[in-house]
Amino acid sequence: MEKKAHVAVFPFPFGSHPTALLHLVQRLAAAAPAVQFSYFNTTNSNQKVFSKMNLNGYDNIRSYNIDDGVPEGHVFSGNPVEAIELFIKATPLNFRKRLEELVEATGLKVTCLLTDAFLGFSADIAEEMGIPWVAFWTAGPTALSLHMYFDLIHRNLGLTGRTQNSEQTLDFLPGMSAIRASDLPDELQSLDKPDRPFSYLLQTMGLVVRRSSTVVLNSFDGIDPLVTADLKSKLKKVLNIGPFSLPPCQDQSGCLSWLDRHNAASVAYISFGSMLTPPPNELAALAEALEEKKVPYLWSFREDLKGHLLEGFFKRTSSRGKVVAWAPQSQILAHSSVGVFITHCGWNSMVESITGGVPMICRPFFGDQMINRRILADVWQIGIGLEGDVFAKAGTMNALDIVLSKENWNKMRENIGVFKESATKAVAPNGSSTENFKSFIDIVINISS
Ligand code: U2F
């Protein structure tokens, strides 16, 4: 019987992770129309990502709903980690069960497992099935490397909590001399037991990712060459296939035409990604700073405006500010009117800012964001952090002054230009990322194993 390539895809259903993976699947499905892609995701997340992306005509992508681990009638406490932990507790059974049902019902064997790298249990599933595990790491190479060096970091720094050894640098690791212990995400700060499921998931991933046949990143060879070379020496195969932007939403609120009416490099674009909102006191401080400096702003603000603490600010400043619930971010960052991006330093946002050539003001919160801030502010010098690492009125006004001053802005633009040039080369025909994507297709559609 002829064997057909069938790729089972497991996303991590939070933040931009599932969209980023579905975007990759879409590109693969376009390049390999004879291959079947089965995308297993929680019902909620499936609804969200499939409504955001136009997959009309992609008959070779099918979605399947899996259990999200939320007990019936469960009332959430408001802590965003709760949904993540419930989901993790339901893994890997939820994925396995649905996958087995599908194979049994269709007789279509799985020939490759393509998953978010967070889902380290995929190593076992792929091994049992005798197929390759291709892991998509949605953040940057330094964060991946830090997870892989988890044991060594703990041995060298003797970490027992965030306050300890905070200024100590990680200069014992290749390409990490600027990173400080305090930049490490919580998941790497202490040796956690399975009672903290997210930390446990990531710590496990750091160990098992070596078993993947390939790790794919939204990065390019010009970024962090030392870290990337080290990753290449430790992993079986590393493919930088970026930079790519996640598909932007429709510009229903007219953000781009609003930007057209502004001077070059004058507007502050503000977004904290797909999961975060700064605490109320920081939101107020940021708003006060923007108002006092009279900086035109475009704010992607996911909260309900009615009765919100900032409702008055948005009304008062409506002649020079625009607030939208979700913005076509990559297009905004490519617009010449945007002078600064006020960001949480999520990896995709950072990549889009580099591609658009926009200097950043950083307010990182968790995960890899502190690492990204350290690199982009201290090493690449394409943005700056905030005094005390939080939004306070004076510090934010100061940061706006620094980034928007002609001399600093030009210098940062020049620094970004170096990355932009290497990014452009990477995705050009015959560029490294273009070639790596071709290898990625070959690996994913190969059915010899
Ligand atoms: C998690 O980050 P997020 O998903 O919160 O943030 P990003 O990686 O920056 O991705 C946000 C994406 O959402 C898009 C934006 C990015 O592609 O263009 N977007 C948009 O289209 N419109 C909007 O109004 C706002 C955003 C995590 F929190 C980070 O620490 C990780 O680095 C990241 C990747 O693993 O995932």
TrEMBL record:
One of its GO terms (molecular function) is cyanidin 3-O-galactosyltransferase activity. This is Glycosyltransferase. It comes from the Eukaryota. GO terms for biological process: flavonoid biosynthetic process. PANTHER family: GLUCOSYL/GLUCURONOSYL TRANSFERASES (PTHR11926), UDP-GLYCOSYLTRANSFERASE 85A1-RELATED (PTHR11926:SF774). Coiled coil: none annotated. Keywords: Glycosyltransferase, Transferase. Belongs to the UDP-glycosyltransferase family. The keyword Transferase applies. Pfam families: UDPGT. It is an enzyme of class 2 (transferase). InterPro entries: UDP_glucos_trans (IPR002213), UDP_glycos_trans_CS (IPR035595). Its EC number is 2.4.1.-.
